[in-house]
Structure of Glycosyltransferase:
Amino acid sequence: MSLGERVGLVVTTHEGPGPRLQRCLAAIAASDPDVAVVVVDNSGSEASLTDAPCANIEHVRVDNRGFGAAANVGFAHPAVADAELIGLLNDDVVVGDAWLRPLVECLDAEPAVAAVQPMLVLADTDPPLVNSLGVELDRFGAGSDIGYRTTESEVADRGPRRVDMVTGGALLLRRAFLDDVDGFDERLFLYYEDVDLCRRGSELGWEFRCVSASRVEHEMGASTGDLGDDRTFLQERNRLVTAARFGSAALIGRAMWLSIKRLRHEPRRAHRHAFLHGIARMPRALYERGVATWSRR
């Protein structure tokens, strides 16, 4: 069975049709011309994809309810609804030649793996620098990219490596996994939705991988560059929520203490609102944690 019969791709864009999205789609068309692509556009722009590089691209406009909501719309689109494997890309990602096959091979070889990411390399760096080899959390519940800004040449192992979490910027997921966890949690809006997805998957026994033999370039921050202080608000609020949902009592305490310390720093208003909104959402996160624990017994 060909990749085009097994795989569908979802590309999310908050910028809408333009040079960045065109570069992303052109690279997909050059690498995997037979794979159906759904572009989910929450930019609010009326512009159309007039110069799509191939015919099998669907352009869907939606209201801006965040990254996770846009991705979920793409996952459910009829063009990819029958795909066994679903790729997810931000519009600021440019895939490399044959990037998809190593990811597919990893999922074929390991049935317990829910999702696999390529090596993300920072665009326009010389020598090339790594953006992400997976995601990890520190003792305060803050997420960061594994291998960030190490040189690509230092990545000796190009085979599958086990990671606790994968980045939402570029990955390939099993449809069965998405059905199992019901997609992204849209309440987070932006940031930590990949952490939440993977942690919910881990609770159900799913595993995650990074395959560095698959390489894509990422223009880091290009898709969220207009957020301003909202970036701080969303990152800090969602860090507290995910800490409450998945962390130990000690981690939750450290996460709250870090938020309190940050109230003294700019942007103070964003930190204050993030702390208040995060605390307000914690009881629900703790309740859902209890429900998930009880359901696994």
Observations:
- The CA atoms of residues 139 and 256 lie 11 Å apart.
